Structures are given as C-alpha cells and as structure tokens.
Amino acid sequence: QVQLVESGGGLVQPGGSLRLSCIVSVNIFRLDTMAWYRQAPGNQRELVASLTSGGSTNYANSVKGRFTISRDSAVNTIYLQMNNLKPEDSAVYYCYIFSDRLSSKWGQGTQVTVSS
What we know:
Layout (H helix, E strand, L loop, with lengths): L3 E4 L2 E3 L5 E7 L8 E7 L6 E7 L4 E3 L7 E6 L4 E6 L8 E9 L3 E4 L3 E5 L2
Parallel strand pairs: 2-11
Antiparallel strand pairs: 1-3, 3-8, 4-5, 4-9, 5-6, 7-8, 9-10, 9-11
C-alpha cells in the first residue's frame, strides 16, 4: 500500500513562507509525475505545481515566481516551497503522484491558512 504523508502546513501571515513536505513510501525516482494540488472551501481542487521524472516543472499562473516544487529522491520526499503567501493561497494542499505501475495516489492533505 503506497502512502503519502504531508506536513508543513499551518497559519502564516501574508508575505510569509511555508515549506510543505510529502514523504512517499516508494522510490520517487521511478515516478512519472509528482504534484501539489489545493482545494479551498467551495472551490474545485486545482493544480498548483507539478514535476516530471525528467525534471520539467509546471506552475499555476497564480503561484508562478512564488512557489517552487522540488524533490529529494534520497529521502523519497516532495517539497513545495511557498513564499510571499497571500490570503488567497489558503486551502488544503494535497500531494499527488502518478506512475504507470502505481496509477494515481493522493495524500491526506495539509491545511494552509494565510491570515493576519
């Protein structure tokens, strides 16, 4: 059973930073896609950032220049560095992985609240 465990969420003031972590129970070097999604109350879940096995990244327009997705294969962890946070970034953030062998897997989510 593949497990994804997110951490790093919390309450932060506007302009602040957080780093989300997602520890994966399988070797992430073999994954085709790694991503972070978010869902705010009343909204659909949306892609925030993605990273392919080849190292290509993609970001939602709303977070470009502020968020960075990365991975550390040595510890099977996917990160989302979030800088200059805004109130509209408040949401539950979900880690996502995909591979042909595992199909799609989701983490349980971590809450990020940006408020003064």
